[in-house]
Amino acid sequence: FKLVRSMWQYRDLQEALGFYGAYHQDPVNQAIHFVFVPALLWSFLVGFAHFPLLGKELSVAGHRLTYSTLIFFAY
């Protein structure tokens, strides 16, 4: 939570983005993001694949439309 607290101390967006950019130059931080951001996205897509879009069983070309479909194409 130290990161979140430190981000609120900045006066404007430019100062906050400078901190964000410096923080993400760390190779360890970049490696963590490289591995875990796609893993988190995949996990959410698997979870949302079980919820039909708009609560209806819709399909296109044999593919069931779910919230994962919507998130996938939005991304």
TrEMBL record:
Biological-process GO terms, alphabetical: sphingoid catabolic process
Domain of life: Eukaryota
UniProt keyword annotation of Ion transport present: no
Alphabetically ordered keywords of this record: Membrane, Transmembrane, Transmembrane helix
One CC-aspect GO term: membrane
Membrane-spanning ranges: 31-54
Entry keyword annotation includes Cell inner membrane: no
InterPro entries: Mpo1-like (IPR009305)
PANTHER family from the UniProt entry: 2-HYDROXY-PALMITIC ACID DIOXYGENASE MPO1 (PTHR28026:SF9), DUF962 DOMAIN PROTEIN (AFU_ORTHOLOGUE AFUA_8G05310) (PTHR28026)
Protein name, entry field: Uncharacterized protein
